[in-house]
């Protein structure tokens, strides 16, 4: 954070610095969250169609996962 704050010290107003800091922080959070892997618990019920060799389907209940 100190690095980002020092980049913003360009002599402009406090409001400009706050806007730059907010934008930088939001971008960092977005990058971190989008880089996460979502792991979902096993055993979510599904409904399938097709032959045994070529099935497709969707989950029929909500799965609960976590970011890792």
Brief summary:
The protein has helices spanning 2-7, 14-34, and strands at 38-40, 46-49, 56-59, 65-67.
Number of domains: 1
**Distance N terminus to C terminus?**
23 Å
Number of helical segments with 4 or more residues:
2
User: What is the H/E string?
Assistant: HHEEEE
Helical percent range? 25-40%
Largest pleated sheet: 2 strands, antiparallel
List the strand order in the largest sheet.
Answer: 1-4
Helix/strand structural class: alpha+beta
How does this model look, in words?
It is a single chain. The strands form 2 sheets. Strands 1-4 form a two-stranded antiparallel ribbon. A two-stranded antiparallel ribbon has the order 2-3. The protein has 2 helices and 4 strands. The two termini are 23 Å apart. The longest helix is centred in the middle third of the chain and has 21 residues, at 14-34. It has one domain (2-67). The chain has 68 residues and is an alpha+beta fold.
């Amino acid at each position: 954070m100190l690095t980002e704050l020092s980049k913003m010290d360009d002599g402009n107003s406090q409001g400009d610095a706050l806007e730059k800091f907010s934008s930088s922080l939001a971008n960092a959070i977005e990058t971190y969250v989008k880089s996460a892997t979502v792991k979902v618990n096993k055993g979510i019920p599904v409904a399938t169609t097709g032959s045994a060799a070529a099935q497709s389907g969707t989950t029929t209940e909500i799965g609960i996962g976590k970011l890792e």
